Amino acid sequence: MRESRGMTLLFRTARFDDGRAMAPTYNDVDAHVSATVRGLAAAQQISHANLATLIGIGTTQFSAKMQHRAPWKLREAAQLADHFGVTLDDLIAGQVHLGGRRQASGERSAT
């Protein structure tokens, strides 16, 4: 068995010329949530279909959110954060640790 190395997602905050941080737009937030969910789902080997069911939407709508064609609702992001055991702030900011064990090829899952 090989252990995967954890990885941390961090998104850079946009700044004005004088160094003040810009408030993120909803497009930035949606992009961060999608990227963070994509990384966490891959690290924990959870399908997008299972995540869609978890938050009570169809797979087509979930796919639209992941591809930035539809915005995330706060309730959905909160449910995903709770499922992955991270804070909503960290899910939105992308400040999460993507740990977990990667299965060796040919290894069967315990489920």
Helix count, per DSSP?
5
| Shape by Cα distribution | globular
Radius of gyration: 16 Å
First-to-last CA distance: 17 Å
Order of helices and strands: EHHHHHE
Alpha-beta classification: mainly alpha
- Largest sheet, spatial ordering of strands: 1-2
Share in helix:
40-55%
Largest sheet: 2 strands, antiparallel
- Tell me the number of strands: 2
Mean pLDDT: 76
Q: Unreliable segments (pLDDT under 50, ≥5 consecutive)? A: 1-11, 100-111
The share of residues in extended strands comes to: 5-15%
Walk me through the structure.
The chain is mainly α and 111 residues long. It has 5 helices and 2 strands. Helix 2 (48-55) packs across helix 3 (59-66). The radius of gyration is 16 Å and the shape is globular.
What would the keywords be for this entry?
111 residues, mainly alpha, two-stranded antiparallel ribbon, 5% strand, globular
Strand and helix map with partners:
Layout: E1 7-9, H1 26-44, H2 48-55, H3 59-66, H4 74-84, H5 88-93, E2 96-98
Antiparallel strand pairs: 1-2
Helix pairs in contact: 2-3
